[in-house]
Structure prediction request, 349 residues.
Amino acid sequence: MLIGESEIMLDYVERYIRKNQQWTRTLIGSSLPGDSIAGTTYSEQYNRRVLMDIILHGETNITLMMRRMDHIYANLYDLFNQNFHISGHRKYCRIAFDNLTYQRVPIHEDFFCIILAEQKDLIENDPPFLNRFEKHVVDTDSIIHRCYTIIASNLLQWIDSLVTYSSNKHFPQRKSLFVDYNPDNVRLLVMDAFDSLKISEDYSENQRDVIIGFCKEKLIRTSSFDLPLLLSCHMINNDKLKILIDQYYKIHNQLSFSNIIDQALEETMILNQVIYTYTQIYDKIEYLNHNSLVMEIKIGGFKSEFELKTKIKEHYQSKNKRLLLIRVDYHHEYKHLLFLKHLIQNGSI
Prediction:
């Protein structure tokens, strides 16, 4: 069991494991209403499907990470206790489907199971449950190289310097300038920059400037019109602000939704993207010449994980639809994003 102080800390842990283990998979508890009973406990049918997934993974050399799965941990008592039986040079353990039904299942020699838990949730767990695990508390310093934090601090100072151009202490906020701004997201951006640019943690001064430039370009892509509006009031005799405003318009002129669709469909391998728009969830989106290549679904239209997973698999198996667009009402359906991210990652493997 790996314990972090927040969800974002668990994201760091998961990212680290994915980077250092060849075969990984993450299971996360469903947030869809049809999988729970009165919103308090998961249905028996949902639990059985999850347990079947775990049994299938247990037969492989995969590192399985589990988050928000408290509802089935009691069923995995023997697995967590490593209470295995050896038969014919293979390991077996019992999985409980209910109080009366157990299934004896094979476990691969190199199968690993990791529970990712938030520190605040531990108080709700029974001591006997916690005693089954080898437990480690992870923090920023133990899992994130110092170089990422240094460059992230540089970028955060740059963002702070932009906000100081306003004489109003309360406007604009950083989230007004950069959509979904969060200091932890900036650090994740820096980590992605190292990977994308294939730069080692022992970087040179020139490479540092390349990384910062890469991150600033990505941040400007997420900036709102408030950014050039704010800077334009102070750009007289300030060439740096003029360059930044020009960079904003150069980037955003290519950021129309239709351009993003066109660019994605030109790629051999389409990358996963999160796109923030001001479009209402009930507005119809036209894909112009690409309607036949795009499959659009709305997260609010699904009641269970099984329905949504089936639809995602249908897309990946389709020979006609190249792009899957999942529409989410950010304000009312934000809670589904983490669950949705892992469902897509698992569906594409």
